Amino acid sequence: MLFYEGSNSFLEEVVEFESAKYVVLPVPMELTNSYLKGTKFAPRSIIDASRSIENYNNELDYEIKNKIFTTNDIEVPPDTEKALEAIRGTVSDVLSSGKLPILLGGEHLVTYGASGAFDPDVIFVIFDAHADFKDAVYGVSLNHASNSRLVNQRNDVALVGIRSLSKEEKDEMKKRKLTVIYMDEMKKEQTIDIITKKVKGRKVYISIDMDVFDVSIAPAVGTPQPNGLLYTDMMNYLFAIVNNSELVGMDITEVKPEPDNKITEVLAAKIATDIIALNERKHE
User: Fold this and answer.
1) Alpha helices, DSSP H only, in 14-79?
2) What's residue 139's pLDDT?
3) Domain that includes residue 261, residue range
4) Helix/strand/coil percentages in the chain, nearest 5
5) Would you say 210 and 255 are in contact if contact means Cβ atoms under 8 Å apart?
6) Phi, psi of 120 (to 5 degrees)
7) What's the pTM?
8) How many domains does the chain have?
9) Of 57, 82, 171, 254, which is most buried with the most CB atoms under 10 A?
10) 3-class DSSP assignment, residue 56
11) For residue 137, what pLDDT band results from cuts at 50, 70 and 90?
12) String of b and e for 256-279 (b: at least 16 CB within 10 Å)?
């Protein structure tokens, strides 16, 4: 794997692969988006935005230093199945090296591609405005609106922040007895207890579709929905998840860059650094 030179790296850190603990994988995949286009430009835009963020996290009193290696963009073939296989293979290589993959999408289907590299006992905690549990869209089963359902073919999933779904999706998730925390439930303190109990002592992969956030703080997304999470809400959940489980991977998806407003990319980069800081502080 090749890394970006100099200031093209995440957080502007030039870190040798051998010494890094985390590997940022830019995945410019945009093959099944059904609404706004442009998510293929997100990985580069998020990496650019990361260089506006300090390595030191004051809230967590932790400085990220010599931890993150950044690869070149994963080459995404125009065929969806081949693209998913390329993602799976690259994530497998990272895991085989003993490092933790951080995927920057791209559309949310990159999560399904990554999931094939992990053991079936890994639980995927997916933050999303949408259930993404459709059986198919226009007859196509491999699409971003089916991502959670596809991941659940092999791995347990817990869905957080859901506020847009069909009745069929809701019925199917109930039939499978999935842990689903809808947006209107998230202000209740006991919902954090629910996700904490779900992940406690388990290997966890965290997936964040940026449309889970409220449009006031994350407007540049592929399928925006009103009434979403605020930053503090997300941090409360991430704190509980990371501190009660073994983090094995993560992704941030569905940013659709806008030319004059980079607040969404800054938030995406900040959340990535927050998760790293939480995970590292836990092991100190």
Assistant:
1) 42-50
2) 67
3) 6-282
4) 40, 20, 40
5) yes
6) -65, -20
7) 0.95
8) 1
9) 254
10) strand
11) confident
12) bbeeeebebbbbbbbbbbbbbbbb
* pLDDT tens digits, 51-88: 999 999 998 999 999 999 999 999 999 999 999 999 99
Residues paired with residue 126 on neighbouring β-strands, in sequence order: 159, 207
Which has the closest alpha carbon to 257: 86, 28, 84?
28
Residue 1 lies in a domain: no
The reply to whether 199 falls in a domain is yes
CATH for 13: 3.40.800.10
Q: Is residue 142 part of a domain?
A: yes
- Domain membership of residue 115 (yes or no) is yes
Within 8 A by CB and 6+ apart from 204, the residues are 122, 123, 124, 125, 241, 245, 246, 247, 248
What gap in Å lies between CA 12 and CA 7, rounded to an integer? 5
Tokens coding 245? 């489980």
Asked if residues 12 and 55 have their Cβ atoms less than 8 Å apart, the reply is no
pLDDT confidence band for 7 (50 / 70 / 90): low
- In this prediction, residue 5 carries a pLDDT of 47
81-114 pLDDT, tens digit per residue, is 999 999 999 999 999 999 999 999 989 999 999 9
What pLDDT score does 3 carry?
A: 47
At residue 37, the 3 state secondary structure works out as coil
